[in-house]
TrEMBL record:
Renumbered residue ranges of the record's region Disordered: 47-73
Domain of life according to the entry: Bacteria
Organism: Kribbella ginsengisoli
Pfam families (alphabetical): Zn_peptidase (PF04228)
Protein name: Neutral zinc metallopeptidase
Length: 307
C-alpha cells in the first residue's frame, strides 16, 4: 500500500505491519469488548515491509511551506467525487469462501471467489457514480518472481489494474499463527487492494498521486499517501459492511476482523505512508458501519484523523 511509479502506472502495495514488540508476541487486547487474543507478527521480521512512496527522498522530513496548491481538477476529483454520493453499495450476497489457506492452489481459489464477489458489489456502485467499471486482474504468486514489471516487495499489491497477492504470506500465517486471523487478514487485504481499484476507476488514485508529486514537503507527501491508504481500508470495510448479513461478518469472525484492523498501522515505519493503527481502525470500521463510500472521504479529514 506504499506507492511507486512505473512509467504512467501507479503501484500500490500492502505495507501495513502489525505493531508489536520484536519477536512473535501473544497479545490480549482490552477495551470496548470486541477484542480477541491473537498472535502478532514481529515489527522486525514482518514480511510486509513498505516501499517508499514515489518522489519521497531517503532523508528526514523537511519543514516549512509547501508548494502552491494542486490543480483544481485534481482537488475536485478527490474532495467531491461522485463516488461519495451513491449511498450504500449493494450486497454481493456472497458467503465467505470455504477454502482455507493450506496450499497455493487453495489460496488462489479463495481470492478468485472473493474477487468475483467484490466485482458483483462494486460494479453497479461504480456505474451509479457515472464511471466505467472494469474488473481487475488477479495474480496469486509464490516467491518474488511473478512475471510482472511491478515491484512485488509487499504481500499485496495493486499495480496497473492487477491485484497481486502473496500465497507465501498466507501459508505462513495459516501454519504459524491463528487460522482465524489468517482468514480475516486475507479478507481485509484483498478488499483493501480492491479499494485502490475503486480509486483507479473513479480517478481518485491518479488525482491524489498528482497532488502528492507537486508538494515540496515530504511530510505533506506522506500525509497525502496516508489519505489514499486509509481510504482504501475504509472502502474495504464498506464492502464487508454491505455484505455482512450474507458473509456473514458476525460472531468470532467479526471480533477477529475488528482486532485485525485495530492492530494494523505504520508506527514502526519511519516513512509513515499508511496511517497509525488507531486511525486505521477508525476508518476501516467507519466503512463497515456505513457500507457507504461517503464515510471514506479521507481527503477532507483533518490531519490528525489521517496521522
Amino acid at each position: 500500500m506504499g506507492e511507486n511509479r512505473w512509467g504512467n502506472t501507479v503501484l500500490v502495495c500492502a505495507a501495513l505491519g502489525l505493531v508489536a514488540a520484536a519477536g512473535v508476541t501473544a497479545v490480549r487486547m482490552s477495551g470496548d469488548g470486541d477484542d480477541q487474543p491473537g498472535r502478532v507478527l514481529s515489527t522486525v521480521r514482518t514480511p510486509m515491509a513498505p516501499a517508499a512512496p514515489s518522489g519521497v527522498p531517503e532523508t528526514a522530513e523537511p519543514t516549512g511551506p509547501t508548494a502552491s496548491p494542486p490543480p483544481n481538477q485534481d482537488n475536485a476529483i478527490v474532495l467531491q467525487n461522485k463516488l461519495y454520493k451513491i449511498g450504500r453499495i449493494p450486497a454481493s450476497r456472497c458467503k465467505e469462501p470455504t477454502v482455507r489457506a493450506t496450499s497455493p492452489a487453495k489460496i488462489k481459489q479463495y481470492y478468485t471467489q472473493f474477487l468475483g464477489c467484490l466485482n458483483k458489489a462494486w460494479a453497479p456502485a461504480i456505474r451509479e457514480a457515472g464511471f466505467n467499471f472494469w474488473a481487475p486482474k488477479l495474480v496469486v504468486y509464490s516467491g518474488r518472481s511473478a512475471n510482472t514489471f511491478c515491484d512485488l516487495t509487499s504481500t499485496a499489491v495493486y499495480c496497473d489494474g492487477t491485484i497481486y497477492m502473496s500465497a507465501d504470506y498466507d501459508l505462513k500465517n495459516q501454519t504459524t499463527y491463528d487460522p482465524l486471523w489468517t482468514r480475516t487478514t486475507m479478507a481485509f487485504l484483498i478488499a483493501h487492494e480492491y479499494g485502490h481499484h475503486v480509486q483507479a476507476m473513479t480517478g481518485i488514485l491518479q488525482a491524489s498521486h498528482n497532488r502528492e508529486t507537486i508538494l515540496s514537503s515530504t511530510s505533506m507527501q506522506l500525509l497525502e499517501s496516508r489519505r489514499r491508504e486509509l481510504q482504501a481500508s475504509c472502502l474495504s470495510g464498506v464492502y464487508l459492511g454491505a455484505d455482512k448479513q450474507y458473509f456473514p461478518a458476525r460472531g468470532s469472525w467479526l471480533l477477529k476482523w475488528k482486532w485485525t484492523v485495530r492492530n494494523r498501522g505504520d508506527e514502526w515505519n519511519p516513512k509513515r505512508t499508511h496511517g497509525n493503527k488507531t486511525n486505521h481502525s477508525r476508518w476501516s470500521r467507519a466503512g463497515f458501519d456505513a457500507a457507504d463510500p461517503a464515510a471514506c472521504n479521507t481527503f477532507t479529514a483533518k490531519p490528525a484523523a489521517v496521522s
